[in-house]
Design a protein that fits this description.
Rossmann fold, 44% helix, four-stranded mixed beta sheet
């Protein structure tokens, strides 16, 4: 997407791959409408014959790219990773299409927002960085994860 957080996330992705020798194709803005997102992924991938991995940086790009990986017969050939743990993403992890996804732990985000606000309003507690505990989800721990949505 074009949101500021997505630019930051992509910047971190680029930094993490520095020196890997891998060429990054993107970022690709897929939008948030499922069929348009899928079509964008499909058209982007049609010109790429040597892709080894795809990273979806939000829920829409993760599900669109995973759908493409599955429907194109590339599950197990192209490593697919993503963000968020929507029910469809959980199914892709369960079926081996997505190797891992990073869940943003929305319940903890909501709890911490209220707690920090309460502590500030009632005790003047300084508002500082809050860790809401992003979760790294694979097939091994999928059963213990809280599916979003």
């Amino acid at each position: 997407t074009g949101a500021g957080w997505s630019h930051d996330r992509f910047g971190g992705f680029e930094k993490g791959l520095e020196g890997s020798g891998l060429e990054i194709v993107g970022p690709v803005n897929v939008g948030n409408e499922p069929s348009a997102a899928y079509n964008t992924v499909e058209s982007t991938m049609s010109g790429q014959s040597d892709v080894v991995a795809i990273a979806g940086l939000d829920c829409c790009s993760t599900t669109a790219a995973a759908t493409w990986v599955q429907q194109s017969g590339n599950a197990g050939k192209i490593t697919m990773v993503g963000f968020d743990l929507l029910p469809q993403t959980a199914d892709f992890v369960k079926n081996g299409v997505v190797s891992f996804t990073i869940s943003q732990n929305p319940e903890e985000q909501g709890y911490q927002a209220v707690k920090v606000l309460h502590d500030f309003l009632t005790g003047g507690t300084e508002i500082t960085g809050v860790d809401t505990g992003a979760q790294f989800i694979t097939l091994d721990n999928l059963g213990e994860a809280t599916v979003e949505g």
